[in-house]
Automatic annotation (TrEMBL):
<dbReference type="Pfam" id="PF07676">
    <property type="entry name" value="PD40"/>
</dbReference>
<protein>
    <submittedName>
        <fullName>DPP6 N-terminal domain-like protein</fullName>
    </submittedName>
</protein>
<dbReference type="InterPro" id="IPR011042">
    <property type="entry name" value="6-blade_b-propeller_TolB-like"/>
</dbReference>
<dbReference type="InterPro" id="IPR011659">
    <property type="entry name" value="WD40"/>
</dbReference>
Amino acid sequence: MEESRGSIAFFTTYRPPVPLDIFCCPVPPSSSEDEFPLTDGLSYNSNGQAIPPAVLKTILRRPNLASEAIEADIESGRLTGLIFVSERENHLETLQIALRFNDSPPEVKVFSLADVYGADSFNGVRMEDSGCFGGGYKVGSEIVDHSLIYVSTKEPVQDRRSPWTVVYKTNLSTGETERLTPPGKFDLNPSVSQSGKKIAVASFEGKAWDGEVEDLQTDIYVMNVEKSPSGLGRKRVIVNGGWPTWGGDKFIFFHRKVGEVWGVFRFNISTHETIRVTPEEVNAVTPAAVDETRVAVAVFKEKVGKLENIGLSKERNEKQIRHIEIFDIIVPEKSEQITQKIRPRVDHYNPFVIDGGKRIGYHRCNVGLLQNRDEIQRNFHEFQSPVEDVGLFRVSGAFPTISKDGSKLAFVDNEFKEVWLADSQGLRIVLKKESENNFFSPMWNQNPDKDTLYVCMGPSFHPDEPLQIIAIPNVSSGASNPVMLTEGSDFNNAFPSTNPEGTKLVFRSTRGGGDKRYKNLYIMEDATVGENGGELTRLTKGDWIDTQCQWSPRGDWIVFSSTRHKPTEDVPEKDHELDPGYYAVFLIKASDPTVVVRVIKSGYDIAGHVNHPVFSPDGRSLAITADLAAVSVDPVSLPLFLHSVRPYGDVFTVDIDPDDIYKNEDVEKFCRITHSRYENSTPTWTMFSINDIEEQWHLLLKDAFAPPVSHAHEDGGVAWHMSGHLCPKKKGR
């Protein structure tokens, strides 16, 4: 039964094109020679925390690690430890333990938490983050066991637009795990006090996530590491604060957005006094307390647009690059620069403290992996799937589409300049940008014998600009001559999809949409010639947006995303100044457009985003991209944090009745397929198992390929148009 229902492919936006890795340097550093890596350099690694020596001794007593070293290695400084997030385990973003042997040359060994503590607590599809350590203090004559405190999304949540982020504690001696976040509550970014007794978290408690993806405005709660008869003593201490970090046991540093500027503040637990630590003119985020007065922060002193911190390019000056600095509340007007002296043209993220502040750790793009200034190595990645009979993999390109017979894979490069094809002849470009227009949303004709690929061409994400649909017949042969199906049209046309016979094509268009450019669905009665001599039939009509349509494998229904049920009163025209919001997924009968059924909405009030629906090959399910799980990290901590967790969110599936359209109204149950801090989006679903496909493109799951990238620079800077595309805002999709 393995992958008997085929495989889902998707792509990830805003994930850096160059792998992230974790480094550290002394305080103060003098040059780049002072920096050294803390991991083995494999995979993407981020959000590290040093493992204290006493904790590392406890971890080393586990059977699987006992032979690696002895306590004397820790005491002498030969062995140090790191807890960090990595994508190395089934490409999930999970916590790992690194043992660094400071020999000559140094050696790093990495172990998963399942390796050390078993799979009972550390298994399944999930995201983990924010590892830190508690315990180790005395209660009477007893010493409380050391524990790992961390965030996981492993417990399913059926409430819509609710985070899945829960804080857990794993006893490092016994391996026993317990949930610390109360039922029905959700937390981020735990931090443990110096004594090991208290935990501070950024929490959604008492507030519903409303779609905000820049400034979450969480509150900060404090609770005990160990339960007493009365519980954990959880209480709110700070309103509107995120990313807490303890300065001793008396102070909590945190970040907060005030107006348009992010700042770092210090809260006094005893007096409840809050003081701003960083200057008002400097954006400062993700603090890591060194002691009661000093704190390491990531700063960017000038904004790029609306805080569009998009990596590096030669157009950005050094004040727009994210760097690590240390501020002291005693001398607030002066900071100690750290990473500017290491790599001035590289962004650095999420600092952490090592050896009491003698060293500072952080993560950045591992620019040493660049093959040359024009190439960035990338792979297709096979993921662990939460559904036993459905495979899952990520395509390192935008808008993947697979032919019905599984022999061909097409996608657009992440700069929207080229259309790529992978088949038995290998990987190659079949359409290349020759004007200011971009390419996106390729789609195969459902009839594989026609060997036709459809592509949208025009300015991306500009609903007021014309957007055309191109057909590329005989695309595999290389002798294709692209045909403009909407030639001469001044409308915004996109998301083509044919019926199973490949003779008709449904798409969305702004024609008839009036001044507000509303979008409805139309059918080209002849998918070969389009509007050039062929007839056009209007399928939907209304003052709303119908978009992202796909014809079902049986040809009877068409699925699409729409804002048609958005309230007309008391709601903003745009959701958080981005797009209309209120997207839900609908089914319509291709032969009777009066039959329309809403299948799934985002929130219970319909607000939110459920987008890019596609049918499973057997017609029994839909794959969607949606914000059903809200956010899983603080967006400001991400490399490209502006809108970097929506409108997509993650990939989900919804089961439907393929025979009775009316039984699919407002389906309640959904399955979360991916768990990520980035955006996983635009799925496609093929009938073939990942392991069964023998066509050449399947080799891309194992072999790397490296499309040229024009934004990698010799000084180590990387402009992230590959991961963030070219769009600061997603609107009018």
